[in-house]
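Bench log. Compound arrived from synthesis this morning; before running ITC I wanted a structural hypothesis for how FE2/S2 (inorganic) cluster sits in the protein. Inputs:
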Amino acid sequence: MTALPGSAEGTAVTGLDSSPTEVRADLPPLTDTTRAECRELMARYPVPRSALLPMLHLVQSVQGYVSPEGIALCAQELGLTKAEVGAVATFYTMYKRRPTGRHLVSVCTNTLCAVLGGQRVYDRLSAELGVGHDQTTADGSVTLEHAECLAACDYAPVVTVDYEFYDQQDVESALELVAALRRGEKPPPTRGAPLTDFRGVSRQLAGLSQHADAVAAQAAVDGPSAGVPTLRGVRLAAERGESAPLMPTPAAAAWDPSHTADGASDVQGIPRQGGAGDGGTPGEQAADAEVAAADNPAERAGALSNHPDRPEPAGRAAADRDAGVEHPAEQAQSGSGTSIEREV
Ligand code: FES
């Protein structure tokens, strides 16, 4: 999705700074309130221009797309050229260059969804609505687009409406979903917040609440979240007694090889194997030095997680780690391939 120099799209969102800005009478105006909200967003960042992305969402929430008027407003408030703002707006697919319908229907046609029917879903919706990619129905109810991976492959094929998920769709369910949208209904998404509309969710993406009151805002947060496919890996790990490597915790952060009385590492009561009192093996000493040299908490956490004396997660012993065995059960069964392969 690029705006070629000289194309209608490119001209619409950039334009020379000295050129007049088109103000469309058929769109809701960008008002003093919009400008005040832009400034509210700018005040959230140490450098005001960092607010450009939410400001573009804010413009979309008012006018349904990033209009030339919206580009000019952002440029004026941030002290940028319209070309600079346009360059950002044309880079991201979530910023629309033409007025969007009441709802944005995105059909994932990326690999996993495509092989499970996503392309069929897109093709049927396109035929039913009489529009192609990035086009809006004549009644203004729906803009259709095909999308790259929507990060919900475990629910393929996936459709989103205004970025809310409708999982495991087929042609019939997608047709019914779109028909309901065109009747003015808002079918509940499979997961996440209740459906609003494109302008409403754009306001949310700007970082400003789209909800009328605190109860409605909380209801959006409380929507259903992870489902069975998402949690399958967690369930398998629990069944096998596996867990993720330790994250830095107050207890882990308190552990420091340099804090032991004799200078030798001692991890949560487990004495170092290299010989207490001698500073450990060269590898252990190097790891100690790496921990000591860490400049910030993230570096320190990384150095600690690589330290040979670090605590082992449940279900994996140090001997397994050293032998490169990630799944003790795998070793016991002496099979080839991973546990996941066997499961599948
Ligand atoms: S391929 Fe469709 S959500 Fe990932």
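What the model suggests: The domain at 103-221 is CATH 3.40.30.10 (Glutaredoxin). Residues 108, 110-113, 149-150, 152-153, 156, 158 surround FE2/S2 (inorganic) cluster (CB under 6 Å).
ITC booked for Thursday regardless.
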